[in-house]
Amino acid sequence: MKRKIAIIISLLLCATVLSGCWSAKELNELAFVVAVGIDKTKDGKYVMIFQVVNPGNVVGARQNGGGSGGVPVSIYKATGDNLVEASRKASKKLSRLIYYAHTNLFVISEEVAKEGVNGLFDALERNSECRSTAMVVIARHHSAEEVLKILTPIDKIPANQIIKTLQFSEKIWGQSINVDIGTIINDLASPGKAPIISGVEIVGSVQKGKRQTNVQASEPDARLNINGLAMFKEDKLVGWISGETARGVVWILDKMEQTGVTVEKEDAAYKVVRAKTSVAAHMKKGKPSISIHIQAEGDIGEEFVSIDFTNPKQIFALEKKAEKSIKKEVVKAIEEAKKAKTDIFGFGDIVYRSYPQQWKTMKSDWHDRYFPQLEVNVTVEAFIRRTGLRTKSYLFGQ
After folding, report:
1. From CA 36, how far away is CA 144, in angstroms rounded?
2. From the centroid of its chain, how far is CA 199?
3. Residues 6+ apart with CB under 8 A from 340
4. Shortest CA distance to 73 belongs to which of 130, 158, 142, 135?
5. E strand or H helix at 306, and its extent?
6. Calpha distance 255→333 (Å, rounded)
7. Of 26, 66, 67, 245, which residue is most buried, by most CB within 10 angstroms?
8. What residues form DSSP beta bridges with 136?
9. CB within 8 Å of 292: residues ≥ 6 apart
10. Whether 237 contacts 230, CB under 8 Å
11. In the chain, domain spans
12. What DSSP designation does 54 have?
């Protein structure tokens, strides 16, 4: 009898564990969404744009664009009072189930960002298929729909083109930041750190960029270009930082990997190969202050005036000029953020970690009162490690 009971219990356990693929989804029933755009209509409704992979035009095809097959992606859009409604409504236009597990990019229009993004990220976080590691960009000067419709020449899937461009631009040039959903949500929830998101724009003809001929020419009619950092205050876009000033933001956030700095008076091009930034908070007579220390190491990539690299004094002087150029970018970035009254650097979080009791009295007015008046001291150390094969350039004689 005991043996029979044991067998029955074992069978019940097996039935529980081996319950079959109850949640399985067949591949031919799924629409793989690689990117989602979010716009708004004139009457205030949300428009979701889905960049869906056309499997037959991608599988087995080369990923370098310009193939003779059909278009690698299709664009679908749906409108609703909120994102959930718009997503569900898209089922009227798609013969497959929308699948977000492979969505690695979200494009938010500038208009939507100015009105506020809190509701958007709440919906994305609650969606079990959405990855918190998916990148987010702001469509600058164009709608999210226009950005997602541009066909790209190197990567067949436009979403991949934007993602890879953003990654390499952050690593090599240092004027953009790769920001994901999880990071933005953390910033939105923090009273001492405001979100900052990279922008993407269209260069060229928007209409021609939608056609397949855009990827069949040596010079495309339209390209997607990473440009600027969008500054947010609470959940609303309040301004842009571009160029060398944007690089100042990257220096402060300790995200600088490599870049090229033209030293003061254009003496030489300084190639930064590694950098480290440390930020500390201090309290003086009840007032907070911040100290930033940047260490940069790099090589001489090009010289514009005659420099004798065998002379330590000239190298030291060049390092000092490089330090001054970097500090100028950092100070300018701080000034721009103070004008917008938004702490995109997370100085408030640093004050909170160092002085939690004092932070309680500053938290509610940090962005509007304390941050714009915050004393920030910047010090930079730049080291030249390599100067190249020549100690004296042939351009200026021997």
Report:
1. 9
2. 8
3. 231, 233, 238, 239
4. 158
5. none
6. 15
7. 245
8. 106
9. 252, 277, 278, 279, 330, 376, 377, 378, 379
10. yes
11. 26-241, 243-398
12. -
Say what angle helices 243-252 and 312-340 make with each other, to 10 degrees.
Answer: 90
* 8 Å CB contact between 104 and 34: yes
218 half-sphere exposure, CB direction, 13 A CA radius:
0
Contact 130, 57 (CB under 8 A): no
Phi and psi (nearest 5°) for 103? -80, 110
Residues 105 and 5: their CA atoms lie apart, in Å, by 54
Pairing of strands 30-40, 46-53: antiparallel
* CA distance linking residue 294 with residue 152, whole number of Å: 37
Are 78 and 52 spatial neighbours (Cβ–Cβ below 8 Å)?
A: no
**Per-residue confidence (pLDDT) for residue 398, from 0 to 100:** 55
64, two tokens: 């370098």
Question: Who's near 144: CB < 8 A, 6+ residues apart?
Answer: 37, 38, 39, 49, 107, 108, 109, 112
The total number of residues written for the chain in this structure: 398
pLDDT tens digits, residue range 275-285?
A: 999 999 999 88
Judge contact between 99 and 69, C-beta under 8 A: no
Query: What pLDDT sits at residue 61?
Result: 47
Say what the alpha-carbon torsion angle 287, 255, 195, 141 is, to the nearest 10 degrees: 130
Separation CA 387–CA 362 (nearest Å):
48
Would you call 204 exposed, middle or buried from its count of C-beta atoms within 10 A (0-12, 13-18, 19+)?
Answer: middle
User: Class for domain 243-398, per CATH?
Assistant: alpha beta
Amino acid, single-letter form, for residue 25: K
By 3-state DSSP, what share of the chain in percent is helix, strand and coil, each rounded to 5?
40, 30, 30
**Contact assessment for residue 36 and residue 51, using Cβ atoms and an 8 Å cutoff:** yes
CB-based contact 176:257 (threshold 8 Å): no
